[in-house]
């Protein structure tokens, strides 16, 4: 079991996986997989997203930064330039677009307008915005993959 998995199991204590699933809006099977450190179907290592860790930190009332460190996101031996070299150009582009969208959603259209993002007439919570951003990022990745398949290499900007 991984350091993160051990920590999460300790934080959960005697509470059930389903109880934590209700608090985090994650599936109980996914939480179990995170605790074990691998996906049960494929046996491949599982590294939860920062958003998942944020939900778990909130449910366990535990510092988010400590979960990020246990998952290996913070305090690794890699420097930012080394990590940036590993990312493909597409991943960097997606990251930049998501950062701009996040900024636009959080700051609103303009200060004078005093508008904010709303859903069915109600202002969106931070969790709803994060969920929307995750969906957008996933859609962006799928669209990038699909477009690469159909764009001839001579027209690609790699």
Structure in a nutshell:
The protein is an all-alpha fold.
What does this entry look like structurally?
Strand 1 (118-119) and strand 2 (122-123) form a beta hairpin. This protein starts with a helix and ends in an 8-residue tail after the last helix. Helix 2 crosses helix 3 and helix 7 runs antiparallel to helix 8 (126-150). The chain is globular and about 55 Å long. The chain has 158 residues and is mostly helical. The chain has helices at 3-12, 17-24, 28-36, 50-60, 64-71, 80-86, 89-107, 126-150, and strands spanning 118-119, 122-123.
Main sheet characteristics: 2 strands, antiparallel
**Strand percent estimate:** under 5%
Classify the secondary structure makeup into a structural class.
mainly alpha
Q: What share of residues is helical?
A: 55-70%
Mean pLDDT: 75
DSSP helical segment count: 8
N-C termini distance: 39 Å
As laid out across the biggest beta sheet, the strand order is 1-2
Instruction: Tell me the Rg in angstroms.
Output: 19 Å
């Amino acid at each position: 079991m991984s350091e993160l998995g051990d920590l999460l199991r300790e934080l959960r204590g005697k509470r059930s996986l389903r109880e934590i699933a209700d608090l985090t809006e994650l599936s109980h099977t996914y939480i179990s997989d995170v605790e074990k450190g691998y996906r049960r179907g494929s046996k491949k290592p599982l590294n939860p997203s920062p958003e998942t860790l944020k939900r778990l930190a909130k449910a366990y009332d535990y510092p988010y930064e400590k979960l990020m460190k246990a998952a290996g996101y913070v305090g690794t031996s890699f420097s930012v330039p080394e990590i940036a070299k590993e990312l493909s150009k597409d991943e960097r582009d997606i990251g930049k677009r998501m950062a701009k969208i996040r900024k636009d959603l959080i700051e609103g259209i303009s200060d004078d307008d005093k508008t904010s993002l709303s859903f069915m007439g109600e202002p969106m919570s931070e969790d709803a915005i994060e969920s929307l951003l995750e969906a957008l990022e996933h859609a962006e990745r799928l669209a990038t993959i699909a477009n690469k398949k159909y764009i001839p290499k001579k027209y690609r900007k790699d």
